[in-house]
Amino acid sequence: QVQLVESGGGLVQPGGSLRLSCVASGIRFSIYAMSWYRQAPGNQRELIARINSAGRTHYGDSTEGRFTVSRDNAENTVYLQIDSLKPDDTAVYYCNAQHTLAGDNYWGQGTQVTVSS
Question: What is the distance between the alpha carbons of residues 78 and 23, in angstroms, rounded to a whole number?
Fold first, then answer.
């Protein structure tokens, strides 16, 4: 059974930082591309960052250089560091695991990030 479990969300003041984690189980983690998406109320889910199996990263248009994705294959974990948080970053952040050739696409349950003073 595949599980992606996100953690690290919460309430943070504007200008603060958070590091989100996503622990994967039930997959051969190292061969999957791992991504972070977010969805705010009334908005579509949008890509924040992706890191492929080789460690190459890609960031979505809205990240403004404030997001850093990384992975630890030994721990089956992908991270998202978010700096200089803004109220517009308030959303549910989702972890995604994808292996295109195998046709696999898995989602976590999401972790809420709220940026407010």
Answer: 7
